């Protein structure tokens, strides 16, 4: 029966942690929730658990421990999956943690080449398939999917002296309609008498009523000269415009 030596232990542990760290570098670079340290620790934990079963020389134990590792990582991955409005975030991160644990199990089992190949495969999925997914991903037309996330922009021009008041009303009107602005820009025009405001918000596929409420509220202000909104991913003729 093969006895796990200290040298073998170190080689397998270093390989497992190194593979997890390589996966984590890509996640860290993209500023994801689980980055370099998290993936390295997940791989280290999976490697250590399987190495323990190897160290006690139980022939059936490594397989059982590996199955427990899979269950444990599933619980850990559930902690990084978050509900964001009508969608879910963190699925890629959870799947990456699962893969980090898998390469750790391979390394602990002495399959060092297979662990490295698995690491390269995970990195290839993130680096190669990401551009491919963006090419295949097409934004739906406005109104075609009520749960689709779109970007809408509200434009208005107001008198310079009322800029602060109108800007506060714009933010208040968006909040009242449950529209969270992702960007707000103010630009003073060359004549110095008018200011242009532009607010970008993330909206659902059916956002006409909410945006019309914002426009109706702001159009009552005497200092507002013109006001309109449009969806960023549809043609200009699909937008709505109100001149005040």
From TrEMBL:
Similarity annotation: Belongs to the MgtC/SapB family.
Short name of one Pfam family: MgtC
Organism: Streptomyces tateyamensis
A single GO cellular-component term on record: plasma membrane
Name of protein: Magnesium transporter MgtC
Alphabetized UniProt keyword annotations: Cell membrane, Membrane, Transmembrane, Transmembrane helix
Key word Ribonucleoprotein present: no
Membrane topology: Multi-pass membrane protein
Intracellular or extracellular location(s): Cell membrane
Membrane spanning residue stretches: 6-24, 36-53, 65-82, 112-129
Main location: membrane
InterPro entries: MgtC-like_C (IPR048640), MgtC/SapB/SrpB/YhiD_fam (IPR003416), MgtC_SapB_SrpB_YhiD_N (IPR049177)
Residue stretches making up the MgtC-like C-terminal domain: 154-229
Domain MgtC/SapB/SrpB/YhiD N-terminal: 13-134
